[in-house]
Amino acid sequence: MSMVSVDVTQNGSVRSIDTLCTAAEIDECLSRLSDRQRPLNLERQRSCDERSLSELSMGLSPHPFFRNADNSFRFMDHPDGVLTPGRRSGFNTPRSPNEFETHPMFAEAWESLRHSLVFFRGQPVGTIAALDSSEENLNYDQVFVRDFVPSALAFLMNGEPEIVKNFILKTLRLQSWEKKIDQFQLGEGVMPASFKVLHDPVRNTETLIADFGESAIGRVAPVDSGFWWIILLRAYTKSTGDSSLAEMPECQKGMRLILSLCLSEGFDTFPTLLCADGCCMIDRRMGVYGYPIEIQALFFMALRCALLLLKQDAEGKEFVERIAKRLHALSYHMRSYFWLDLKQLNDIYRYKTEEYSHTAVNKFNIMPDSLPEWVFDFMPTHGGYFIGNVGPSNMDFRWFCLGNCIAILSSLATPEQSIAIMDLIESRWQELVGEMPLKACYPAIESHEWRIITGCDPKNTSWSYHNGGSWPVLLWLLTAACIKTGRPQSARRAIELAETRLSKDNWPEYYDGKLGRYIGKQARKHQTWSVAGYLVAKMMLEDPSHLGMVALEEDKQMKPILKRSASWTL
Ligand code: GLC
After folding, report:
1. Residue closest by Cα to atom 2 of ligand 1
2. Which of 354, 362, 415, 544 is 20 to 30 A off residue 526, Cα-Cα?
């Protein structure tokens, strides 16, 4: 191991040196550069990305993108560089085919993604959820906000930001609609779950219709949509270096409206966000109400992105201050109470109950008897994760993929926790990845529990759909988390698994079974986010600088509170 640093100039040459790399890493880095001379535009251009919580008091990092000693990518402490998507080489082709990209599935996936484009008055504004004519459409003929995220990332990586911009502006217009369910009016900031373009062949006009939860099964508003919208706005800004979109008064207002909804004061005793079951990717009753990890992690990431994007003008300043306070409290709460590793599990196992006052150790009055049997075997010696939910006398010990990956990407997880999460994924590979990446939630709930928690949902039977099913879309999140923690080999392994079946099976929405061996009972085929998730994973692994679009470095002001197990120490 030697002390070197590699900094790359615009034309791909090496400029300066000052981080820890192994000789092999330096070789790899140099050969990657000379092989393809991929231009990395790391010129310092001060963009809105430069502001972070700690920057308010700390200086800027001089090196926007380099590798840590532990092999993880530290792309930017205060990311001010503009990422460099390749330029379009032609409307129907991915850019610059090279050895990595020549898997036949890659070109097929691009074709399929382009096929899923939805146009409104001549402009592409999103991608349809699924292009499966063999199944009833339901709402799969709509553009879902959450589903569009991997599509948007693929387009950004390919140097095609226009569709992302159109999507951001279109959904912003939808946000300003009056939203009502029966007689009740929803908050102004609510973003739609999905929208659709209606063609009137007689008048030859096109109009948009949107669903804010009033048509959705279960009538739940999508809490995640607003968070994804902010995260995408930051990804767009980061990728293009164009801060003018985020700076538009309409975008600033849209952000403030979303933030007003989730920063408002109420009866809460916790900084986490209270929400109804099914308000995110898992959009049916699955016991993900209260304080589910997916929403908390997205909330945290969206707050951090908003902090980078908000103008410090008269209206923005107040929000910046509220965000800073909330982030501080939220990271403390999550890192302390949602974190589970062997040591913490053992502590809970030995908890005393019925404690009162400030000195209580078991603050939420968790009954050790409520610990499920599976968790004792599931917990590896080295490793840990953010559990599914924490509330009064309630810990949901299930492992949820999206929340844990977003925790890594947003740096809600400390570097030690990020390593522990990856350690757990690697030690429980069979359970979480199996034959097809990746379980949305592990393990499945069964029999009586399934009846009570899902309300006997026939779609969410054990090891199917959200209840222990495997979702290929999650591949992009796993890949990003792997790259951030310096484990590209795990991402490669998962991608190779997906490549054995995804295209042959016509890009299913999800797989069923303990190992994810069966195409999901009611899975749509040609599901766009399965296609886009694969593309993003491939492109990110091939060019890890794309990671900067969806990842944030740790903010030094949010220090870890607890140090619990060996896996926490490097
Ligand atoms: C299903 C999924 C949801 C997704 C939608 C469109 O309802 O549960 O997460 O957004 O399909 O693909």
Report:
1. 281
2. 544
Whether the CB-CB separation of 514 and 475 falls below 8 Å is answered with no
Q: Ligand 1, atom 4: nearest CA belongs to which residue?
A: 281
Ligand 1 nearest-atom number relative to CA 466: 8
Per the structure, how many domains does the chain have?
Answer: 1
Q: Give residue 376 CA to ligand 1 midpoint distance, Å.
A: 32
Phi, psi of 211 (to 5 degrees): -120, 120
Cβ atoms of 556 and 53 within 8 Å: the answer is: no
Atom 7 of ligand 1: nearest residue by CA position = 283
Q: What is the largest CA-CA distance in the chain?
A: 71
pTM (2 decimals)? 0.84
| Residue 563 located in a structural domain | no
- Distance (Å) from CA 400 to ligand 1 centroid: 16
Q: Give me ligand 1 centre to Cα 146, in Å.
A: 8
Q: What domain range is 450 assigned to?
A: 104-549
Q: Measured in angstroms, how far is the CA atom of residue 48 from the centroid of ligand 1?
A: 32
For residue 523, the domain's CATH number is 1.50.10.10
Stretches in the chain below the pLDDT threshold 70: 1-101, 557-570
Nearest-angstrom CA–CA distance, 244 and 303:
20
Coil, strand, or helix at residue 9? Answer: coil
CA 401, 71, 60, 85 torsion-angle sign:
negative
Half-sphere exposure of 16 (CA within 13 A, CB side): 6
For the CA atoms of 117, 119, 125, 129, what is the dihedral angle to 10 degrees? -40
User: Which atom of ligand 1 lies nearest, measured to the CA of 509?
Assistant: 12
Instruction: Tell whether 487 is covered by a domain.
Output: yes
- What separation in Å is there between the alpha carbon of 409 and the centre of ligand 1? 22
Nearest-atom number in ligand 1 for the CA of 465 is: 8
> Per the domain annotation, does 566 fall within a domain?
no
Secondary structure (H, E, C), 109-171: HHHHHHHCEEEECCEEEEECCECCCCCCCCCCCCEEHHHHHHHHHHHHHCCCCHHHHHHHHHH
Ligand 1 probe mutation, 136, 138, 142, 281, most atoms within 8 A of CB: 281
Residue closest via CA to ligand 1's atom 9 equals 281
Residue 520 Cα distances to 109, 460, 468, angstroms: 20, 11, 11
Task: List CB contacts of 325: < 8 A, sequence separation 6 or more.
Answer: none
In a domain, 59, yes or no: no
C-alpha distances in Å from residue 226, one per residue of 70, 229, 255? 34, 5, 8
Is residue 103 exposed (0-12), middle (13-18) or buried (19+ Cβ within 10 Å)? middle
CA angle 288, 461, 434 (to 5 degrees): 85
Nearest to 487 by CA among 523, 541, 447, 450: 541
Distance 281 CA to ligand 1 centre (A): 6
Pick the residue whose CA is nearest to atom 3 on ligand 1.
Answer: 281
Q: What's the rounded Cα separation, in Å, for the pair 235 and 79?
A: 12
Residues with CB under 6 A from ligand 1: 129, 144, 146-147, 281, 283
What's at 469, amino acid-wise? G
Neighbours of 525 (CB within 10 A): 18
